[in-house]
Specification:
499 residues; alpha/beta; Rossmann fold
Amino acid sequence: MVFRLVLGCGSVGQPIVEQLATSDGRLLVIADGPSLVETLRDESVPARLDDPTDPAVLDGLETPDEIFIAGDRTDVNRTALERARERFPVASIVAYLGGNATASDREAFESRADRIVDPTEALAADIVDKTASRSAKHAIDLRAQLSSIDGRLGVFMHDNPDPDAIASAVALVEIAERVGLEADACYFGEISHQENRAMVNLLELELTNFTRDDPLGAYDAFALVDHARPGVNDQLPEELHVDIVIDHHPPRGPVAGEFVDLREEAGATSTIMTEYLERFGFEIGSRIATALLYGIRIDTNDFAREVSAMDFEAASTLFPSVDQTKIDQIEQPTIGGDTLEIIARAIKNRDQRESVAVAGVGRIADRDALPQAADQLLAMDGVSTTLVFGFRDEMVFLSARSRASNVDLGETLRDAFDPIGSAGGHADMAGAQLEIGILGGADDEDELNSIFSVIEEVITDRFFEAIRTRPGTPVGAYDRTSEWLFQPDDGERNDGESA
């Protein structure tokens, strides 16, 4: 049984004693205040009236497991600590420093106590807790986490990153490098949307593209931006130890990390990164400012979707340093012939029921043509919600758009496709990915088209059903046809990749 000894009992000691009295084990308080000792005894706390600094008192005690030096005066606590350490050399000692400690006192405490309670530090921490904003504390904690990393940091975006993820990763790399830490902005998949490529190229953003088989050994620490869990919406190992997570999306599961900043009230992760740059006191250069503002604009649909005061404040901070000419060039890229072909197919193949239009476009070379096609369908008269999908290799990619106030596309796609793949996004903009092993086993184009026509029917029906049943319970168990379709050919578990 644990034996705890308390030597002295002042204003700090009394709350400690009250907590210890409720713990398992034996407790003894030695104090030189008669009224205090009587009060403790009245509360059924074992207490003895004696001098806690008297060696003779200590000599008469059995060896305690834990000792708490808890008087108010520094000189008395120092004497009690010195004699307790001499008498009980192996006991664990926690000592309260008191309010008038000299340099000599601190040295004596540090050399003898296992842990010191410093009133100055405690007061400072209390002041920070009560007066510092959450963002200031986040900045302090982020700097501490970055400073604790020994080696190189890999900052990973989600797969096929959008402008918000790209800008956030580049900003975190900038912060890391300014505090003396080497870092890289990394991603899996492709940057294939014309505007996203234009952003990277025009702003000369340095990014590292990984494939699933590439080793991660170059990095000693890992950060996730604009998503929160390794192996979900990226190709990192699910068991990867993550040091830093910064995201604005609501988490769909437990988030583990040494430093985690999840702010759903922010319209973009770029907003959070702007705040960090400002809190750190770093000058925001034109390249980073332009990327961050563009990231905020895209994720908030030009401040019209899920926007907060934070986003406007970040934009006002960035605006003086933004290169507006580069923004204009990014927003007006040329559209390739393949993208125009996909848009034409979507218009031709659409299945429109009331204000909802769904279109399968078959094989695609560029998955980023899908959201552009979804946008074009949304511009048609009488259409307020769209879904466009196509396949490449063994993956079917889906992109949805809506301007209907009663539709939450992120939840709708999760209801419809999470059981057979992965999905997510915003109320008016969302996506999904479905792994279909049977596509990889098809021998010719006719067979592929035949399989895709069945897939098209399943996806269309599931989406319309999910639209019909929201709000309400999610779509129920899928039928035997879809269960057969959405299994990899080799029989392994279909993990899928998050949208």
